[in-house]
Amino acid sequence: MQMLLNNPRSTINELADAVGINSISVRHHLKGMLADGLIAAEEERHGVGRPRLIYYLTEQGVEQFPTRYYRFTNRLLDQLKETLPAETVEGILKTMASGLAKEPAREAKNRSLEGRLALLKTLLEDEGFEVEWEMDNDTLRINGISCPYFHVGQVHPEVCSVDQTLISTVLAIPAQKINCVLNGDNQCTYIIQLGQAVENKS
Fold first, then answer.
1. How far is the C-alpha of 86 from the C-alpha of 99, rounded, in Å?
2. Looking at residue 184, what is its pLDDT?
3. Start-to-end Cα distance in the chain
4. For every residue of the chain, which 3-state class applies, written as one string?
5. Distances from the Cα of 56 to the Cαs of 41, 60, 145, in angstroms?
6. Residue 49 Ramachandran class (φ > 0 left, ψ -120 to 50 alpha, else beta)
7. How far apart are CA 149 and CA 125, in angstroms?
8. Distances in whole angstroms, Cα of residue 198 to Cα of each of 88, 158, 176, 193
9. Cβ distance 149 to 160 under 8 Å?
10. Integer CA distances (angstroms), 194 to 24, 116, 137, in order
11. What string of pLDDT tens digits covers the 202 residues of the chain?
12. 153 near 85, Cβ under 8 Å?
């Protein structure tokens, strides 16, 4: 993985030469990393003959290496909050979340609740959230098992508006936050009153 970080888009033979082991062993290692989603491969034409496979790190693979994303994000938000009014910063975060949810929300319009929840789950997982939900009569309860913004949220709780906006936008129903890990709760919890969906459509 270090070789792919330093030499993106490498072939098996190139990797074998770089690390000093045979290509069969390299292929074995690459197979495991492909299965774990850490790398990807695509065909590339190189002169005459069959295309060759080029390997590169995925976003998940790159994130295995030490980063300073939290530090950078905190500094960026610090600067925004020093420069702009609080409501403007919150508006930027909500606009960003609405943009992420725009396409899933469009797909969700003609789907059942189960279909909308499936789209929401995919969107949240793509953003690094892990959630589960339960139904009680007309009340949907969404529990956040993990949050990718937790460390940033400890300094800038405004980022909590992102997942709330994603949920509300895709389901087209307001989501009310009743628990938050930043307040010492075990998980973030949102309540959605499904009866509001009928009211919103009328």
1. 20
2. 83
3. 55
4. CHHHHHCCCECHHHHHHHHCCCHHHHHHHHHHHHHCCCEEEEEECCCCCCCEEEEEECHHHHCCCCCCHHHHHHHHHHHHHHHCCHHHHHHHHHHHHHHHHHHHHHHHCCCCHHHHHHHHHHHHHHCCCEEEEEEECCEEEEEEEECCCHHHHHHCHHHHHHHHHHHHHHHCCCCEEEECHHHCCCCEEEEEECHHHHHHHC
5. 6, 11, 31
6. left
7. 13
8. 32, 30, 17, 10
9. yes
10. 56, 13, 9
11. 888 888 888 999 999 998 899 999 999 999 999 999 999 999 887 777 788 899 999 888 888 887 778 889 999 999 999 999 999 999 999 999 999 999 999 999 989 999 999 999 999 998 888 899 999 888 999 998 888 888 899 999 999 999 999 999 999 999 999 999 888 888 899 999 987 654 454 4
12. no
Residues in the chain: 202
Residue 183: CB atoms within 10 Å: 9
| The two structure tokens encoding residue 100 | 């992420």
Token look-up 């950078």 returns: 72
Tokens 């940033």 found at = 152
Partnered with residue 54 across adjacent β-strands are: 42
